[in-house]
Amino acid sequence: MNQQEFFVIIERDEDRLYIGEVPQLKACYSQGRTIDELMTNMREVIELCLEEEAEA
User: How many helices, marked H, and strands, marked E, lie in the chain?
Assistant: First the structure.
């Protein structure tokens, strides 16, 4: 399997949720209550973003 690395920009919103964004991928965002939950969600959304880019 080909492994790629992406930078994730993490911020916290007013509800104290962690918000993550991958600037290299269009519309690649997610959130989580903890950093671990956010990173799990980010891995899933990155896979979806990469699949969508491949189909385009």
Answer: 1, 3
